[in-house]
Every structure is written in C-alpha cells, then in structure tokens.
Specification:
Shape: elongated
Number of helices: 7
Mean pLDDT: 80
CATH architecture of the largest domain: 2-Layer Sandwich
Number of domains: 3
Number of strands: 8
CATH class of the largest domain: Alpha Beta
Distance between the termini: 102 Å
Structural class: alpha+beta
Length: 231
C-alpha cells in the first residue's frame, strides 16, 4: 500500500509539472527523475544496505530468536530480527539495537548454536602433590557434579605453572550462559571441598625478592672511582 501511495504521488507531481510548465519535455522530466534517484540513492544508501542485509539474515538464518550471541562488543539474547536492525537483550537487561549491515559483515559468535558448550577451568596445586591422586580426584568431582554432561566426556590435563602445577579441567554443559555459570560455581565449590578432604594444597603465588646494599651502587662512588682512574 505504501509503494502504491508513493507511486501515485510521484505520478501526480509529474502530471502537475507538465501542466504548469508546458515547455517541459518528457526528456527533461526523465532527467530530473534520474538526478532525483541518484540523490535519493546517496541519501538512503545506509538504509538500503541495512534493508538488504536484513533480508539476507532472515533468509540464511545464521542465528534465531532466543539464541545467545556475541556481536562485536555486545553479548546477549536475540530479541528480534527486523528489516533494518537486530535487537539484543544483554544479560543485565539492556536493549541493544545493531544495524543489520554491521551484523551481516562482521563475525557473530552464536553461543547456543549446538546442544552443548565446553567450559575450561584451571586449578593449581602444590609441587609436592601426588599428581595421579589429584588428577583422579578432580576428574571424579567434575563427573559427579550436577549439570556436567557425560558426553563429551570431561578431561583433565596437567601443565607446569610459575608457582604451582596447574590442572586444566574441561567439561561440557548445556550452552545457556546461566547454566554455564551455575555449573562452574558448583564445580569450584566441590573442588575446594575435595582438596581439603584429601589434603591437596592450593598454593599462593610465590615471588622471590633479593635484597642488596644500595650504597654499594651509589653514583658518588662510581664518580670517585672514575676520577681516580682518570688521574
């Protein structure tokens, strides 16, 4: 209906111009329309880009309503996909409107694209800790924690840190951010309780500081030594 209304108005303006200006020829009208279309094109190019990008997003469906995504500096749940823009509801309840041209031409991380999502959690232990005992303890904890999926299976890897031996725990949960956070808290609490129970020490960061007599390196002594050598 809007297109028909606009077309009718444009035709009426052209007819009125021809009647008002009898010397106005068809070629002049076409030239004016051509210049007008170019001007309109420059003025509304961003709108046209967002419009086309919105159509492509709706056709290709790289993400859907309710998906949790990361778009540039923004992360949240997709509230709506409109012709001109995409609306996100951030996790703290804010509404973000992102032009579709930006969404279509930049990387988008879809956090809920699959049925499961991996979480990596690090924990360090003292260098005197029996590593097989610690590894098996941590693996048992994450396997038994409510919310951790059995497939893919959890994994525990060992690496050397600066002041501890670090274990990297990898486990899978459902992809929603709320569930990821809840399960991570459960795992952390269970790990601390297990370490206390079996006597595994979680060390503090250690730094070695060497002290020396600053007077031995004073500038005055250097200058005195230099003067005596020069003499």
């Amino acid at each position: 209906m809007q297109v028909t209304r606009i077309g009718t108005w444009a035709l009426g303006i052209i007819i009125a111009a021809v009647i008002a200006f009898p010397d106005l020829r068809l070629g002049d009208v076409i030239g004016i329309l051509g210049l007008g279309s170019v001007a309109i094109g420059f003025a509304f190019q961003d709108i046209f880009k967002n419009f086309l990008a919105g159509i492509l997003l709706l056709v290709e469906e790289p993400f859907r309503l309710g998906d949790q995504v990361v778009m540039g500096d923004y992360e949240g749940t997709v509230e709506s996909i409109k012709i001109r823009l995409t609306q996100l509801r951030t996790y703290n309840g804010e509404l973000v409107e992102i032009p579709n041209a930006i969404v279509f031409t930049n990387p988008v991380r879809v956090l809920t694209a699959f049925r499961s999502r991996r979480t990596d959690l690090d924990i360090g232990v003292d260098y005197t800790t029996p590593l097989p005992l610690a590894k098996q303890t941590f693996l048992d904890i994450i396997t038994r924690t409510n919310g951790v999926l059995s497939a893919p299976e959890p994994e525990v890897d060992v690496v050397f840190g600066e002041s501890s031996i670090d274990f990297k725990l990898r486990y899978w949960t459902t992809p929603q951010i709320a569930e990821v956070r809840r399960v991570k808290s459960r795992v952390a609490i269970a790990l601390k309780a297990a370490c206390d129970e079996v006597g595994i020490a979680i060390p503090y960061p250690i730094r070695t500081v060497h002290l020396f007599d600053q007077t031995q390196f004073s500038e005055s002594k250097r200058l005195d030594t230099g003067d005596s050598v020069a003499q």
